[in-house]
Amino acid sequence: MSKLFLISLFFVSLAVHALGPLPSPEDENSRFFSGRVSRSNQVAKLIRVRTDFANIKFLNRRDRIEFFNEQYPAFRCRGFIEGRTNDYFLVKIPDFEACLRSVHFTTGSYLRFESGDLNQSVDLAREVVGILQKKRLAMQAKKNRHQRDLDGHVDRVDTVNKRFEILRQKLEIEWQKELALLEEDKARTYAEFKNSEARLNEIDTKLEAYRIEDHNLKLDRWSLDPALYIRK
Questions:
Q1: What average pLDDT is seen over the chain?
Q2: What does the pLDDT read at residue 71?
Q3: Radius of gyration of the chain from Cα atoms?
Q4: DSSP-derived secondary structure letter, 152
């Protein structure tokens, strides 16, 4: 049994070396993150891992994932994401027993994880963030422009009010000037009317003074019968 275990370790080691060198120190923006096994179900070949990894939201169901124990960094196991929440994710491990023997994990074990699918999702998210940041800059500039327009609204209203107040004053001055001209025209016309009336009366007086009668005798109407009218 011990010999079989050593042979298994040898082949697992070869597989690990074929995967390439160990990752450099990880950070939350890379494909590497850590978590602690909170529950293990050997029958269902599932482990539930609790993590405070900020980018766990980019893990999707069926994403491939590899993990290893810090105490045995040369041995890795592969699995698939079965589901996740904000703090937990489920890993389906096809070869559960081999992983137990090579990685040596149990409930409470602290493991390191790596996912190429996660890395692709993060890269895609970075591209989306870059696009959104450009859109945000453009929208922020548009918002600032509208904000300046709103802030300057009161000043523009005051400017319009002052301009139209000046125009109103000018118009009122013109209005009063036109009314004054009409009053002057009325006074001048009235004066000319009175002068014309006086001249007319003067002419009528002269006409009366120089009137010539058509008949020297007056018609005496002493009788009711016109046939008996006489001039005398």
A1: 82
A2: 84
A3: 57
A4: T
Mean pLDDT of 24-53: 81
96: pLDDT strictly greater than 70:
yes
| Cα 123 → chain centroid | 29
Count Cβ neighbours within 10 Å for each residue of 142-152 and write b for 16 or more, e otherwise. Answer: eeeeeeeeeee
Cα 218 to Cα 174, 210, 215: the distances in Å are: 66, 19, 7
CB 48 within 8 A of CB 37: yes
45 by Cβ neighbours in 10 Å (0-12 / 13-18 / 19+) ranks as middle
Residues 6+ apart with CB under 8 A from 205: none
DSSP string, 65-110: EEEEETTEEEEEEEEEEEEE-SSEEEEE-TTHHHHHHHH---TT-E
How sure is the predictor about 144, in pLDDT bands with cuts at 50, 70 and 90?
Answer: very high
> Which tokens go with 81?
């994401």
Q: Beta strands of the chain (E only): which ranges?
A: 32-41, 46-50, 64-69, 72-84, 88-92, 110-114, 219-220, 230-231
The answer to whether the beta carbons of residues 111 and 105 sit under 8 Å apart is: yes
Tell me what percent of the residues of the chain surpass a pLDDT of 90: 53
For 161-193, the pLDDT digits (tens) are: 999 999 999 999 999 999 999 999 999 999 999
Distances (CA, A) of 92 to 20, 113, 117: 23, 13, 15
Q: How far apart are the first and last CA of the chain?
A: 183
